[in-house]
Amino acid sequence: MIRKSPSDLAGSEAADWCARLNSRTVSTGELEEFYRWRRAPANAAAYAETERTWRAARALGADGDIADALGEVLVRQVAPHSWWRGWRFQLSAACVALLAVIAVGWGMTRPQIIATATGEQRLVQLADGSRVRLDTHSRVEVRLHRSQRDITLTAGQAFFEVAKDSSRPFLVTANGSTVRAVGTRFGVRMDGDAVAVVLADGRVRVAGATAGSAMLRPGEAVTLVGGKVGAPGPADIEALTSWTTGRLIFRDTPLVAAVAEMNRYGRVPIVLATARADALRVNGVFDSGNTEAFVAAASAVSGLRVERSPDGHVRLAD
Description:
The chain is α+β, with helices and mostly antiparallel strands. The protein has helices spanning 6-23, 28-38, 41-58, 64-76, 82-99, 237-240, 255-263, 291-302; strands at residues 112-115, 122-125, 131-134, 139-144, 149-155, 157-161, 170-174, 177-181, 185-191, 194-201, 204-207, 213-216, 220-225, 228-229, 233-234, 247-254, 270-273, 281-287, 305-308, 314-317.
């Protein structure tokens, strides 16, 4: 029996996780399993390398010949054992197939619905090569036309990696306001009648449903309330987009806001029972859905007691 080296094992597991996380809805349990696996430095490095391969392949997926060649390259880059080559080839073929999906006609009338339940995240590649990463309890409707690409965010938040196509702008609508892009990476989040837009790369124009417009540059964000565009400004892009990596970054975040964010992912609700909540702040990096780690850190810093009720709720109380 041939044993794989630690690096080969990490690489094979990274490829498996990449296929699982990028091809279907992922449950909270699977995400937690992935986070535990990724805590090992070798696993984290292997997954980062695999993700880079996927991102490089994204721009090539629409070309069948290139996709086939990519599959060959992926196979040749792994260990020389024949059984491993065969297994990796099957995985690579599945990845390429995902990347190369083409819709039947650009003028589709029925929208493609992409949605997640509480605790789930989903990454979907669209027919034009763009990618949509949906956060927990979120929903988008996708319509691809010959002249433009229309996305409607109806709940939650999403992060978009737009395939460049100057002849077909990429439009994301949320609460009637619109974000217009061509080739860029940005996030949109709905919270009641408010819409937040954060730009990682490229440029986008934001048009309010009722008033105003703004051009965002990389590293900027803007919030729209009631369809009115606010003033764009510098933003903590790493923290605002950390959910796309399965982590939540809090930097001097009010405890109330941090608890609300953790509750979006967790299966065990956290309840605040303190009059000091508005004055308390949280700093740290937490796996989304890892309620236990967050509660332990928050209670240690704030001095609040942890109370567990029979119905599964966790209370942070004075």
